[in-house]
Amino acid sequence: MHKKIAILVIIVALSLLAFITAKSITGKEPKTITYKIADPIGDWGYPTPYGMYPRGPGYVRMSLVFDTLIWKDREGIVPALAKSWSYISNENAYIFDLRDDVTWHDGKNFTAKDVVFTFNYIKKHLWVWADSSVVKEAKETAENQVKVYLNEPYAPFLTNVAGALPMIPKHIWENIEKPEQFMDKQAVIGTGPYQLVDYSKVQGTYLFEAYENYYQGKPVADRIMFVKVNSEIAPVALKRHEVNASSIPAEVLDDLKSKGLKIEEEPPAWAAKLIVNHKKEPLSSKKLRHALAYAIDR
What we know:
alpha+beta
């Protein structure tokens, strides 16, 4: 779960950046708003569910293009491609009622068939961040409704599967047998707020442009760019307004604040795991293991 939390923190931060106020002080709409984000690594893979590198920044880039059934903000679970959902305990199944105003980036309608296809696809082609083994079957029960049956009760299904799994278009992916090698222009057709228009693996750059027909409204930021910038150079690039956002080392915090730059702070979202060999003395003692657990300052 710590990976999910870290990713959500990053995505929430980027969402705030992407949907910045469009109007200037004069009230006039600018012609184009480009938001440029510095990243010391650069390349995080091709932003498809199977082409991304399976870490937070890779997921963030992919999530600009592909949406999930539901999402999660600071208040809890919120609608996305599904406008509502419910759990039927005696059937161990979830019903998702889908929005009817969603289109893929190629103009075709998003339907229940795409959702059923996605759940079936990840059972054959395992996806790194959603456990497909918990899903028994997905069925189209109405024109804009899908019912997902689980093999057994699974408490985090909404957050770990429905809220993490990007929906993919059946009409494009149904004949793709090697999804990790699918990297042409059709591979990045999603339902998300942005479309990928340029990617350079060598330079570690990405350029996304807003999808005008996005079902939640056209994003205010017309373009989002990710550029590779060394961590030591990033503070200088910020002060020169060459980039709009970057992570920074703590020692330059006061200097950047004095230049009038806005600092966004988030609590740490990493988790550490302590693994012990409980078959070997003295860690074979349950009392000692309990004592260690109580002694650790979390």
